[in-house]
Amino acid sequence: IAAYAQNGHGKEALELFRQMHLEGRKPNIITFLAVIDACASFTSLTEGKAIHALVISSGFASDVILKNALINMY
């Protein structure tokens, strides 16, 4: 996901994240950072809001680095 996001392939990063989520795999902070970066580069605010909700429900809402990534995305 990070490789896609960092190389301008935000759509592919989001698709891989969706697959991961559908398979029941739990994202960690690093995964969330990469997918938030993908949303920011792909300018997908709708997807970004859904990811933000997942960050909150996963218990990572207080992480400062994630907060900064979300600010950048919005």
Your description of this structure?
Helix 2 packs across helix 3 (29-42), helix 3 (29-42) packs antiparallel against helix 4 (45-57) and helix 3 (29-42) runs parallel beside helix 5 (64-73). The model has no long low-confidence stretch (mean pLDDT 93). With 74 residues, this protein is mostly helical. It has helices at residues 2-6, 10-22, 29-42, 45-57, 64-73.
Helix content: over 70%
Termini Cα gap: 20 Å
Give helix and strand order, one letter per element, not per position.
Answer: HHHHH
Number of helices: 5
Largest sheet: none
Mean pLDDT: 93
General shape: globular
Strand content: under 5%
Low-confidence stretches: none
Beta strands, count: 0
Write the layout of secondary structure elements.
Elements: H1 2-6, H2 10-22, H3 29-42, H4 45-57, H5 64-73
Helix pairs in contact: 2-3, 3-4, 3-5
Short structural description:
Helices cover 74% and strands 0% of the residues.
Provide tags for this entry.
mainly alpha; 5 helices; 74 residues
